[in-house]
Amino acid sequence: MNSDVPVTAPGECWKTVAVELVSDISLIRGEEELFDRTAHLFVAATDIACAADDLYTWALSRPSLTQQGERLVHDKRIRKLYRPGVLLNEQTAQHLHHLSGLGAQIRIGTEEINETILLDERVAIMAGDEGKAVRSYSVISRPELVQGILSLFETAWLASTTLETFDARFADIRMEAPQILEFLTTGCKDEKAAKSLGMGVRTYQRRVSELLVALGVTSRLQVDARARELGLL
Length: 233
Hints:
alpha+beta, 2 domains, LuxR family transcriptional regulator, 8 strands, Endonuclease, Chain A, Arc Repressor Mutant, subunit A, 53% helix, 8-stranded mixed sheet, WH-like_DNA-bd_sf
């Protein structure tokens, strides 16, 4: 046996590896603690990439951080990837176009994504279950893990569509969304709803399908709850 190689019991070896992994991943509970421990990383970062279902992220609890981000966007590479639901609200859509005008790159993707932030391709912040009373966040600095998360983000980014292109064909859905949501949540028959909107039944059903995609749901039964989450009802 090679005397240069230390011999340890299996349990001791596992314990060493576990300690190494934990040092590269910090579990943070709640937005306040997350802000306190990572705000300096956002200020120092020059390359920020984030993916989220909507704009209601932890940063909105700190308006000063959001405003500072808008002021510094010219000095940073900012990429934001969102789901179509962000465009259903006129105010939200305008805010995204405002950020785009400041220099941020914004794209819209239809696939489900986990709320993730990448800073200078060196640190990844991943949000935990949104349904928990106190949401947890994992702050990851282990290079191999960060690169894996970055690879997933880049794949989703390339498969998405620019804000301007997506919004151009989304305008009709946004205008009709309030009425269609009302029809769906009150159980109105497709034929009656289509007639009220002055369109054919097939056109109406296609609009409903597009709205489901925008909301990030798979059935009409989920529409009411999701629309309320987004402040559409």
